[in-house]
Amino acid sequence: MSDDNRRQRMAKLLEALGMTRVQRSVFIGRGGQTKAKEAIRAAQRIIDRATDSVVAVVVPDDYVRRMLVAGQVMGDPGRAARQVTVV
């Protein structure tokens, strides 16, 4: 997204929908197809389609439980992540 004000508005809106910012214009959240559509509809109200792009990745809960995580589990800061050692 090229405009910082639009990027900030977009971030606040997607975070209010339970999404977590991964990069400047990339967000990830738990949910299904309905959540994905809701996020994209929200993005379309803010972005300039000629210059901006927003990526909203919605991950089903069963995928989140199988993710390898270092730190806090996405969308659930009170739950401890599985500890994984990769050699």
Automatic annotation (TrEMBL):
<dbReference type="GO" id="GO:0051607">
    <property type="term" value="P:defense response to virus"/>
</dbReference>
<protein>
    <submittedName>
        <fullName>CRISPR-associated endonuclease Cas2</fullName>
    </submittedName>
</protein>
<dbReference type="GO" id="GO:0043571">
    <property type="term" value="P:maintenance of CRISPR repeat elements"/>
</dbReference>
<keyword id="KW-0255">Endonuclease</keyword>
<dbReference type="Pfam" id="PF09827">
    <property type="entry name" value="CRISPR_Cas2"/>
</dbReference>
<keyword id="KW-0479">Metal-binding</keyword>
<keyword id="KW-0540">Nuclease</keyword>
<keyword id="KW-0378">Hydrolase</keyword>
<keyword id="KW-0460">Magnesium</keyword>
<dbReference type="GO" id="GO:0004521">
    <property type="term" value="F:RNA endonuclease activity"/>
</dbReference>
<dbReference type="InterPro" id="IPR019199">
    <property type="entry name" value="Virulence_VapD/CRISPR_Cas2"/>
</dbReference>
<keyword id="KW-0051">Antiviral defense</keyword>
<dbReference type="GO" id="GO:0016787">
    <property type="term" value="F:hydrolase activity"/>
</dbReference>
<dbReference type="InterPro" id="IPR021127">
    <property type="entry name" value="CRISPR_associated_Cas2"/>
</dbReference>
<dbReference type="GO" id="GO:0046872">
    <property type="term" value="F:metal ion binding"/>
</dbReference>
